[in-house]
Amino acid sequence: MRLVRFEDESGGFAIELHPLLTVVSGLPAHIRERLVGVFQALPGGGDPGGRGLIDVHGVFLELTRDNLQLLELDQDLDVVLRSADLPGTDVAETGSESRSWSLDESDPDVRDAREALAAAKAAAETTTRLVRSLRVKISQLESERGEVRAHLVELDQVTRVATDDVAVARANLAEAEARWVAERDERQRVAREAAIAAQREQAVAGSASTAARRAELESLLTGLIDRSSHLKRELKRLRSLDPMPVRQAHAALQMALSAAAPAPDHSAQVELLSQRWRDVQSRSAAAAAKQSASHRRLAELTARRDRAYEELVEAERAVTAPEPDEGVVDELETVHDEIFDLDGRTSKIGGARIRRRLDELRVREQELLGRLGFDTWSSYVMGISANVADPERHGRFEAARAAFRFAEAELERATAATAGNSEVTGLERERAGLAAETADLIGGDPGADPLASLERFSMPALAPVKAAAPTMSVEDAATALRYALAGAGTDLPDPEPSPHELLHLGGGWVDAMGSLPELLSRTEHEFRDVERDIARYGAEFESLSTGPSADPAGRGIAEPPTLALDDPAELVATRARVAELAAAAAEPSGGAERSGAEEHLHAIEIRLRDARATLADRERALAAIDEQRSLAEDRLGRLEDQQRARARSAAETSAPGFGSGFGTGMGFGLAPPSEGDEAEESAGGRVGTGGSSGSAGAEAVEWYVLARLAQQRAVSFVGSVPMVLDDSFRGFRIGDLSDVFVRLERMSEVVQIVYLTEDPEVGAWATRLGDQRARVLDLRTGH
Question: What is the C-alpha to C-alpha distance for residues 430 and 287, in angstroms, rounded to an integer?
């Protein structure tokens, strides 16, 4: 496993690493510590504290704790090699020469440097604690944010489950609707075929009655034409009537009779007849109401009898074996023969294709048997229809027959009761007698309103406004009125009426002429209705005379209406269930809980952003403090070098052979280097600052480094984890450790190596390896 990129979550730095070997320099102390902590977290699957990318056998994964645990990284392994870890190195001497002398602390510059260094270290320690507490706080906030996000994911999962349930329910609904549509279409097809067949039967039966209908229409048209001619003549007569001569003659006769003896008093007779007329009219109204109720009762019983008859016919059709369709019968027998043939060969062949074909044929056979009204092939062979053998259908037939008989009996009883009612007949005879008596009294037809005629007869004669000459006698006035009435087309009774009777006849005619416009309008309406009926029946007569004959083949058959079928209860329930699930899925899962979690997550994000900003500020402050500490250390080092140089100069002056006894072990002396050492240093350079190391020490370091690399080659199935050299070879010359550096280059193909140092010679060595093998990063320059 190799770490190829890392980004600090606080925004402090980002680094791209070479998959084999990377030399990094220019790191502030806190960033150096942060980067080392990242590599230390890898073997144990800990929190890296940042984002990044790892390469596992060519597969790139995000640098997260979950992915590290997924790779089964749970080893307690130290991946950082420090100079103090090397064999033969005294920790107390690491990074500085062993001194046989001490600094002159009385020097003011040394005291100032010491104080500045102490202040920088104290500030660095304080700031480091703050940075660590901020990182802990950020880690806690990130953990809390992860929990809230996980909770939101659970709520989303609930929503997805509800959505999946809706999808499944809709799929089931679509399947159920498809089945229902197929069944409905089949039932509508059967009903349509039955309706068309019934129309064909009616067409065939209607062709036999066409002649009778034509004869009926011919007779009806003859009567209508005669009626039209009569109405036409009546309209001509009514339009030619002039009521003025009759009015004048009636007024002259009325004046002549008024001048003569007064008319006899018929008031008592008129009152008696009026009372009798009112009594008859009252009883006639009651009888008419009673007769209307009887007619309504007859209509209801007739409709009930008709419905019972239709139900009886339907039930009888259900228990009667249907007429077999020859095409269906032929197909059924062909299918059954094929089933019989394949069923006999199945045991021999045993092919899956034949079994599938048998299943299809059996399904088709059952469909054809159902269309013919049989349950099984055996019932078809024996001629036992499912309709005939069904006891439930027989029960419905018997119930329908009993209901029809009961309805017919009730209708017969009601008809007999209505026919035996003689009250209306007696009233009609009584009205006819009263009409005759009234006519005898008033000397003419009493008309449609006999009470008005009697009232008019009993009224005293009024003086005419404009009468004939006052010298006209009663006989002359009566003759003039008689001629006027005859000229108006009125048929006078025989023998000739008396002047008084003639006066009443003329008065009735004059009153009738008051309704002449209404009579004329009514006659015109009747004439138009008769003409319209003549046109309608004439067109029907012409169509029967010239139209095509009934066609049994089906041409001219009207398309029957589509059979209306209600959706089954199961389908309606399924639709309701889908609507319920869809409504539940449309609502936000968790409701207030989800809203609260989102608000909490938003608050955590704000706190996390503020904490990271504060951490970035503290890290920048720590970097500045580290810079101050570094400057203080450099100043103290320069003062130390100056004092050491003065001490060395004094020693050389007092003892010229002082450095001849300098050994070649792992320690460091104050003696100047020998000529060979100077040559070696100029040829290979030093690793860090300090004294030389001998070949025995270099060999021990080489074996120790190889052993540490070997420990990191097999960490779970991912293989190796990266090793960090934290300025491990400080105090050694590169020439003494040439074999070690060769080993490092080779082992980088197995274990990724990250070298943290400020020695430019190590960077130069990595640069000479080339971009394919190594990368040199100096964060002070940004590359």
Answer: 14
